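Anyone up for a design puzzle?
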């Protein structure tokens, strides 16, 4: 554990509940790779969270493995980052239960994601869906994380995690580090290409709204060419009145590093056709090396297995230290 002890710690995760999207990449993964030198980084595959909604078991397994490969292909060097599968570290479920008992019914009822997901899955509003934020708080608090890099939609979950930690610390002393959300300035909320008032989401029913990280270039181009814009024919950043164009500008800005002013100048007097093609091409080029490397890594299952096994071991070591402390504080008899 040598020098990593002095570095600030980061924990984040993505649910392998669907294929990774351009939203998960721009809002989260893309920003993770650059943090490894400065921080001690833990990135999880949040498989336990996915079963709050019904999953096809074989698909969940396949997507989890693909996601390990995609993490590495996106620049997360397993030598410098701890990459692990949530269900491989039992401390998540163990602390999750304890935190359930320090999380209030009222605060869980106010969670936007719970309200959205229970509307979408009206026939399966299970207890796990409701207490999901307490498990997510356990994910973060087990590692005593300083920062939690996420997209804007997860901010509320990091806030409830802070509330739960503060409540627990209020009773038992300084057990948990209070984490801060770490949200990118551009790319924190990538919207659907076909209905830009909604977030781009893994579970989007409209196949044209969502671009997947590992999708073929021709499919990506087709989706961008069809992307919803408006009738003004002017590339200008105005999320309220021009949500489609503004979303494409954000994507182009993150993909190319150009500012909004530079993008407006680049496309001044040109039609949306040119603009959408350029955005599509920038995304294809951004994702191409990641897709190719993911495919290469997926052919080497033994290597991927060695990565997540080593990750689980390292994560368990850190997580179990926090869990022991918590068990002692709440009064569980030592084994
Ligand atoms: P999930 O799996 O829905 O999303 C993973 C990450 O991608 C970000 N993201 C987006 N960012 C910008 N635009 C979008 N359209 C977009 N879609 C997704 C999310 O903000 C997130 O950062 N509960 C979490 C997973 C989780 C977790 C954790 C995260 C479980 N435990 C502990 C951090 C710490 C979730 O469902 O993310």
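Challenge accepted. My sequence:
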């Amino acid at each position: 554990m040598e020098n990593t002890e002095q570095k600030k710690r980061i924990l984040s995760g993505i649910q392998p509940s669907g294929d990774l999207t351009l939203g998960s990449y721009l809002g989260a993964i893309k920003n993770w790779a650059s943090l490894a030198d400065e921080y001690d980084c833990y990135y999880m595959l949040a498989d336990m969270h996915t079963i709050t909604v019904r999953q096809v078991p074989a698909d969940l397994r396949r997507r989890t493995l693909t996601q390990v490969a995609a993490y590495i292909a996106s620049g997360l060097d397993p030598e410098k980052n701890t990459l692990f599968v949530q269900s491989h570290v039992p401390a998540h479920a163990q602390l999750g239960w304890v935190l359930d008992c320090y999380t209030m019914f009222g605060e869980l009822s106010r969670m936007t994601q719970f309200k959205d997901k229970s509307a979408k899955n009206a026939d399966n509003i299970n207890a796990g869906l409701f207490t999901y934020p307490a498990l997510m708080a356990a994910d973060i608090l087990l590692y005593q994380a300083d920062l939690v890099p996420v997209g804007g939609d997860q901010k509320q979950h990091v806030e409830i995690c802070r509330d739960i930690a503060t409540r627990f610390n209020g009773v038992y002393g300084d057990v948990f580090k209070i984490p801060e959300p770490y949200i990118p300035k551009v790319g924190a909320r990538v919207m659907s290409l076909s209905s830009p008032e909604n977030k781009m989401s893994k579970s989007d029913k409209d196949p044209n709204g969502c671009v997947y990280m590992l999708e073929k270039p021709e499919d990506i181009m087709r989706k961008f060419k069809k992307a919803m814009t408006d009738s003004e024919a002017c590339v200008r950043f105005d999320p309220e009145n021009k949500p489609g164009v503004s979303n494409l500008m954000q994507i182009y800005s993150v993909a190319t590093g150009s500012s909004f002013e530079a993008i407006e100048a680049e496309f001044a007097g040109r039609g949306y056709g040119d603009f959408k093609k350029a955005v599509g091409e920038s995304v294809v080029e951004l994702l191409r090396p990641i897709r190719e490397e993911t495919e290469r890594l997926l052919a080497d299952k033994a290597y991927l297995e060695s990565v997540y096994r080593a990750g689980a071991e390292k994560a368990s070591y850190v997580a179990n230290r926090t869990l022991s402390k918590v068990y002692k504080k709440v009064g569980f008899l030592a084994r």
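A detail worth pointing out: The radius of gyration is 21 Å.
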